[in-house]
Amino acid sequence: MDFGRLITAMVTPFDGEGEINWEATSRLVDYLIEEQKSAALVVCGTTGESPTLTDKEKLKLFSFVKQQAAGRCKIIAGTGSNSTRHSTELTKEAEKIGVDGVLLVVPYYNKPNQEGLYQHFSAIAAATSLPCILYNVPGRTTVSMSVATTLRLAEIPNIVATKECASVDQITWIASACPEDFHVYTGDDSAGLATLAVGGHGIISVASHVVGAQMSEMIEAFTSGNVRRAGELHRQLFPVFKGLFECPQPLPNPSAVKYALGLRGMDVGSVRLPLVSPTEEEAAFIAALLR
User: Fold this and answer.
1) Which of 74, 83, 104, 161 suits a disulfide with 183, CB 3.0-4.6 Å?
2) Per-residue pLDDT at 249 exceeds 90
3) Residue 47 assigned ligand-binding role
């Protein structure tokens, strides 16, 4: 399964009462596919505020987004958690819905060792025929999956990719030794071009909500051999990549990108507690980024 080079980790639109806004979700899916050139969408990942969504909401979102996309892009369901049993059951339900793959985050809070991580992911993969994408994000989980564990899991046929957020160094080591058909993605927009340069496949992105078309152009420039143009585009986009997370002090994802979408005429509402909306200062900073 090739999910493409630019994947958007989609926000979950909410209404004024904090409930899922299905009309806005429909518009957002069309916008991300047609205008921002997303090859695939991750539904109910970190950017989709998965910790505050119920399983019932997640399953309805998987089904709704799959139907709305109507084959125009791949749909990847965020079914990972820190419980192997729960992740397995949610993955099975997502498979029944017909999603194209699942994203499985490294278990958080309970701090498994490397053997525990291997057993966790291999158990979920064994319970589904869906392509599985690993997701290593130690800044959120406190545990980092090692290169050796990732490469060991990459030998399992339906574990087809990883979203790696530890470092470009780790991406480099994985890309150097993984099977040819195993794809390495970065989850850090600012590391996208570097990831491609060291043999990674693409980006699972937040910034692609608002600069996806330009990111797609950057990727196309690099893969077609126009490295100079790719570098120019990366430098132009770099303030947006960094600013959405550092505006002007670190702002939890997806507070900034939801506000940025509103500025682009795509109202997706605010975030659910315990996340909060940008302050006036942060809002002004985000608006300046998009000028």
Assistant:
1) 161
2) no
3) yes
